[in-house]
Amino acid sequence: MRRPFLAFTAVAATALTAIPDRSQAQQGPVVQLDDVVVEGQAAGRNGTEGARGVVGNDGYVAKTTRTATKTDSPVIEVPATINTVTQKQLDERRPQNLTEALAYTPGARTGAYGFDPRFDSFTIRGVDITYTGVFRDGLRQFNSPSGLFRLEPYGLDSVSILKGPASSLYGASASVGVIDLVSKRPTEYWLREVGVETGSFNRKQATFDVSGPANDGGTVLWRLTGLARDADTNMPGVPDNRVFLAPAVTFKPSEDTKLTVLGEFMNSRTGGSMFHENIYVPYTLKDGTITYETAGATKKRLYNARYNDFTQTQGRLGYEFEHRFNEIVSVHQNLRWSGLSTDEKFAGTTYAGRVKEEMFATSADTYLKTRLKTGPVEHTILTGFDLGYSTYDSSIGYNFAAVANPDMPDPTRQRQTMVGAYVQDEMKLGGWRLLLGGRHDWLSSTYRVPGTDAEKQTKGATTGRAGLSYVTGFGLTPFVSYGTSFNANPGTVLNGGVAAPTRGEQAEAGLKYALPGTNTLLTASTFWLKQTDGIVYTVVDSVNQQTQLDFRSRGFELEANTSWKNGTSLLASYAYTDTRILKLSPDTNGNEVNSVPKHSFSVWGAYDAPVEPFKGLGIGAGLRYTGASFGDDYNRAVIRNKPVSFVDARLSYDFGALNPQYKGLTGQINAQNLLDRVEQVCSSGYCYYNQGRKITASLRYRW
Questions:
Q1: 117, 203, 379, 677: least buried by Cβ within 10 Å?
Q2: What are phi and psi of 553, to 5 degrees?
Q3: What's the longest Cα–Cα distance across the chain?
Q4: What's the rounded Cα separation, in Å, for the pair 345 and 357?
Q5: Torsion region of 496: left, alpha or beta (phi above 0 gives left; psi -120 to 50 gives alpha)
Q6: What is the 3-state secondary structure (H, E, C) of 281-311?
Q7: Pairing assessment for the beta strands 61-65 and 134-136 based on DSSP bridges
Q8: Measured CA distances, 46 to 118, 236, 408 (Å)
C-alpha cells in the first residue's frame, strides 16, 4: 500500500478575506426545502445522520449533497442534475441489488441483460457505467473484467447519482457521471434493529443493525450491520445466497476532528450461467461477408445445473478523516483498500468452463477545503491529490471432453496506477453560483499474457468542469454546465491489446424548482454528450467480449420528488435518450446504441396513514416503463426490443399503532413485477429473459 498524498494550499493574504467554514454561509436570496422534523430515535430508514453523500433529506427529497462538490452543497444550488435514492425510498421498495435500487432513476436503463444475479449492470443516458461510474463513499470502486464488487442495499444509507462528467473532481470516471453508494455510519443515539424475511423461491433471510455511543461522552460511536440469506431463484440450480457483515467506528476526540473507519465482508453464491438458447440466422455485412447473428431466444435453458456455480468473496477496509484547523481551513482524507476473489463455473451438455479472478485495489483522496472572500464573492476552494492502484489476475479454462473442472492456465495480469491533482472553486455572489474545476491525471498500465512481453500504456489527461446557476427568491434555479472526462479501462479489446482510455464531454442546461411551502423538488434538464473509445460488449463465437466505440447521446429528463406531511409521497420521472454510433464499423456507424430506449418513464407513489382509523397502514405502488430499442448495434428489426412495463407494490403495517406494547414492530410485503411479465430482452447481439414475479414478506423490530 502506498502512502497517500497530502495537499496543501498557500493563499496570499492580499486582496483575500477569510470567512468562517459554515456550509450554509450564503449571500442573496436562497430558497431551502422544508426542515426535517425527526420524532423518536431513528430518522428515516436506519437513523444515519450526516452521511457522506446525502447530508440531509426529507422523505423522498434530497436537500444537500457532498457527491456533487465534496462539500455540503444544497441540491437546488448545484449546477448539475442530481438524482437521489433516499433512505425512505430504500425502506419502501426494498431493492435486493444496485440494479433494482436504480430502477426509478430517470435515464437509467436496467435489466438490459435480463435476469443475471452475478452482476449489477446498467446504463445512464446511454452510457454503460457498470465498470467505471460506481463509487463507494466518494472513492472509485475498482473492478476487473469478470469481477465486480456487488452491493448489499441493507448496508446503504442512500444512493446519490451525479449526472455529467466529474473527472475534474473524482479522476477516472464515466463521461455521464458517478453513482455514489453511501454506507451506513455510526449514530449518536442507540439504534437496534433485527429482522427476518421470507418469500418467493424458498427465500430465508435474517438481518440486524445495531449502533450507538461506546462511551458516556459520545466521543466513540460504533455500528454493526449484518445479513444472512439462503434462497433460490426462478431458475433451477441458480441460488441467491449471501453473508454480509459491515462494522463501522467513529472517533470524535473534539469538535474539530473526526475519524470514521468503515469495513465490509461479503460472501455470495449464485449460478455461473443462466442463459437461454439463441437462434442464429445468416446476416450479410456491407462488404459481402456473411456472419451469423441471433434472431431471438427460446425458453430452453443452455446451462448444466450439475456444473453451474459462481462464488465471490469481497472485502473492504478504509477510513474517512477530517480535521478543522480553524474556521477557514480544514483537511480531509479518505482511504480504502478493497479486494475480491471470484470463481465461476459453467457448462453445457458436452463442455465446461471456469473463470477465476482476484482483484485488489487501493484508493486515497486528500484535499484541503478553504473558505475565503474576494470582495463580495465567497469562495469554497478544494485543492487535492488522489491515488488509485489496482491489480488483477485472471485465468480462463475450458474442457470440451466432459463436464468437469478444466485445467486452468497461468493467469493474465494487469496493473494500473492513477495519480491526479485537482482544484475546485465554488463561488457565490448574491443569487449567482459559479463552479469551476480542473484536474490532471497520470495513468500507467501494464498488461501481461503468460509467455509474452508485457504491454505498457502511459497516458495523461487534463479534465475540467464549469457550471453556473442562479438561485431566485421564489424557488426557481436555472443552471448550465459543461465538463470533460477521462477513464482508464480494465482488460483488452477484440483486436488485442490493452483497452484505450475512454474520454468524454457533456453540455447540460436545466431548471430546478423547490415549490414554496411544500417539500417538493422538480428538475428538468437537457443534455448533449459525446464519448470516444467507450467500452461496449459484443457476442463473438458465443463469448461476450469488449470492444470500443465512439458515440453521442442527447435528450432531456424530468423528475418530481415530493413528501407531504399527510403521509403521501411521490416519485415520477421521464427520460428521452437519443443515441448515435459515430465510429464502430461500417455496418453500425450512424445506428442507435443497442438496448438504449428513446423513451422511458416511471412513477412510484406511497401513502402512510398518519391518523385513525388506518394509522400504521402503509401502501405503495409503482410503474416502470421501458420503450422500444434495438437488440444489437446492427439495428436489425428481428431482435428489436418491444416496449415493456412492470408493476411493483408494497404493503406495510406498524403494529405499534395497534397496541403500544408492539411499538417498533413492523411488517411489510413487497412485490416486484407483480403482474409476472416475463419478456425477451436483447442486448449486444444476444437475447435473455427477465425475472418473473418476486414477493417478499419481512418482519422488523426496532427498540
A1: 677
A2: -140, 140
A3: 79
A4: 12
A5: left
A6: EEEECCCCCEEEEEEEEEEEECCCHHHCEEE
A7: unpaired
A8: 27, 35, 45
How would you label 8-19 residue by residue, b for 16+ Cβ within 10 Å and e otherwise?
eeeeeeeeeeeb
Cell of 583: 465510429
Specify the amino acid at residue 126.
G
Q: Note the residue count of the chain.
A: 703
**Around 64, how many Cα atoms within 13 Å sit in the side-chain half-sphere?**
19
Q: Which three cell numbers stand for residue 17?
A: 478575506
Q: What secondary structure letter does DSSP report for 25? A: -
Q: Where are the beta strands (DSSP E) in 37-77?
A: 54-58, 61-65, 73-74
Is residue 182 a contact partner of residue 680, using CB atoms and an 8 Å limit? no
Q: Quick one: residue 702, left, alpha or beta (phi over 0 = left, psi -120 to 50 = alpha)?
A: beta
CA distance 92 to 669: 10
Extract the C-alpha cell encoding 44. Answer: 428515516
User: 699 Cβ partners below 8 Å, 6+ apart?
Assistant: 195, 196, 197, 665, 666, 667, 668
Q: What is the mean pLDDT of each run of 10 residues along the chain (703 residues)?
A: 29 36 35 36 38 62 93 95 96 94 96 92 92 92 88 96 94 91 96 97 97 96 98 93 98 97 98 92 94 94 91 97 97 98 92 95 98 96 96 93 88 93 98 98 90 85 97 96 87 64 94 95 97 71 64 97 94 98 92 97 96 94 98 95 98 95 97 96 94 97 96
**Strand pairing category for 82-85 and 108-110:** unpaired
Helix (H) or strand (E) holding 251: strand 241-254
DSSP string, 398-460: EESSSSSPPPPPPPEEEEEEEEEEEEEEEEEETTEEEEEEEEEEEEEEEEE-TTSPPEEEEEE
Give strand pairing partners of 427: 379, 434
The terminus-to-terminus CA distance of the chain in angstroms comes to: 41
- Sequence-ordered list of residues with C-beta below 8 angstroms from that of 33, at least 6 positions apart, any chain: 58, 61, 63, 76, 514, 519, 521
SS3 621: strand
- Nearest one of 172, 113, 186 to 143, comparing CA atoms: 172
Cα–Cα nearest to 102, from 184, 166, 161, 178: 161
C-alpha cell at 3: 502512502
- Angstrom distances, CA of residue 572 to CA of 91, 95, 121, 299, 515: 18, 18, 22, 34, 15
Q: Which residues contact 188 (CB under 8 A, 6 or more apart)?
A: 49, 212, 213, 218, 221
- C-alpha span between 668 and 620 (Å, rounded): 11
Helix (H, G, I), strand (E, B) or coil at 616: coil
Element (H, E) at 365: strand 352-374
**Whole-angstrom Cα Rg for the chain:** 25
Element (H, E) at 93: helix 87-93
Edge-to-edge strands, sheet with 122-124: 108-110, 122-124, 127-128
**Dihedrals φ, ψ of 415, to 5°?**
-125, 135
Write out the three cell numbers for 109.
436503463
Q: How many CB atoms lie within 10 A of CB 183?
A: 25
Residue among 485, 555, 489 at smallest CA distance from 178: 485
